[in-house]
Amino acid sequence: MRKPAGPPRRAGAPPRPAATISAAPLSDRDIEALQALLDAVPAPLEPLDVVSLDGFLCGVLVQPARVPESRWLAHVTDADGRALPPGFDPRPLQTLVRRRHAELGAAIAGRRWFDPWVFETDDPDDVRGAVLPWVAGIATAFETFPAVMRLPPEETVEALALLYRHLDADDLEDADALLAEIESLEPVESLAEAVEGLVRATLLLADAADAAR
After folding, report:
1. Residues 99, 102, 103, 104: what is their CA dihedral angle, to the nearest 10 degrees?
2. For residues 54 and 137, what is the distance between their CA atoms, to the nearest angstrom?
3. Residue 3 and residue 122 in contact, taking contact as beta carbons nearer than 8 Å
4. What is the pTM of this model?
């Protein structure tokens, strides 16, 4: 798993008005603690890292029907949702995950800006490398909980293009409309622009899910 090295440097993002949420945002120290807790999940389980986790939570939150916590939480500590071994205490990890879930949920429900956990790489020009783990996380949520992918394509194609433009075209089989939409987008010139696209895509998918309810 790709993990941010040392204290994470947050990617730049356009300023937005501050929003009041029900759970306190996680600090950089909290994020580092969460990564350490994920690293401590015993093998052979394969937990998400914090960047993929953030995308995954957004993918859970934009589903047209609420995903029960008991279902999505299992995939945080193992991509396949395997049970934790006896003796492993997941409560500290789950507390931090729930806080981030609540923070993202409040922002998405209010259609407000949020800061995705996307961190700069050693190469400032490597925009794709910085956002790819986040995109992989939201794609994992869509594979695990595919209801959002069954929404009318005309309602989701713009949002999915903003996300999946960071993937290799070879990974998007039988998706001609999506590939055409991706081709119509202007190239991403900065990490801040890419991050703004992630947020816009998430909120567009939330709109599509609301319309389907």
Report:
1. 120
2. 7
3. no
4. 0.88
Judge whether 152 and 41 are in contact, CB under 8 Å. no
CA distance 196 to 34: 24
Q: What CA–CA distances, in Å, run from 161 to 86, 182, 203? A: 42, 5, 13
71, 73, 67: which is closest to 47 by C-alpha? Answer: 73
Residues in the chain: 213
Vertex 104 angle, CA 98 and 107, to 5°: 140
Write the pLDDT tens digit of every residue in 41-82. Answer: 999 999 999 999 999 999 999 999 999 999 999 999 999 999
C-alpha to C-alpha distance for 166 and 213, rounded to whole angstroms: 29
Rounded to whole angstroms, how far apart are CA atoms 28 and 15? 19
Where is 205: in which H helix or E strand? helix 191-212
Alpha helices in 62-175 (DSSP H): 69-72, 74-77, 91-109, 127-144, 153-164
Domains of the chain: 28-212 (1.20.120.740)
Q: Give the CA dihedral 203, 9, 13, 182, nearest 10 degrees.
A: -60
> What one-letter code names the amino acid at 148?
V
At a CB cut-off of 8 Å and minimum separation 6, what does 150 contact?
none
Nearest to 118 by CA among 102, 129, 110: 129
| Exposure of 79 in the CB half-sphere (CA atoms within 13 A) | 14
